[in-house]
Amino acid sequence: MKRMTMNFAATALFLAAVAPALAETSATHKIILPQDIVWKPAPAALPPGAEAAVLFGDPAKDGPFTLRVKVPKGYRIPPHTHPAPEVVTVISGTFRMGLGATAEAGKAQPVTAGGFSAMPPGVVHYVFVDEDSILQINGIGPWGIDYVDPKDDPRKAGK
After folding, report:
1. CA 156, CA 17: separation in Å to the nearest integer?
2. Host H or E run for residue 86
3. What CATH topology corresponds to 2-156?
């Protein structure tokens, strides 16, 4: 029940923040079909191997955004947080999400196609990908990711 209440609260917070911004930024209706999505390398803040496509807004700027992320089987994202609520829907595949500063595959909960996760800012979590997957991230920009262990941050690799 506590998890459900936290998910509801995070979703309500997200929707309350998005509604006014969405009204201001939606001058026209936009439709993107799956075959029209243009995949590019994911933001440098994510470990190498992921691809991304911005469907709405700009994750680097203030305001709402929708980002699709395609990740291969075996991909993982070390423990991290986000500065704003993160709302994730699994479009296809399966990944496991766990909470805490230590990534433990056995403690991560599977999230399958159609699954949903919402969390408030600052919640430490990690991801293991069990099969090729596509995730949709909705949020309020600017989007950010802060790794618990700075050595896990791919932006600092080789520096």
Report:
1. 32
2. strand 86-92
3. Jelly Rolls (2.60.120)
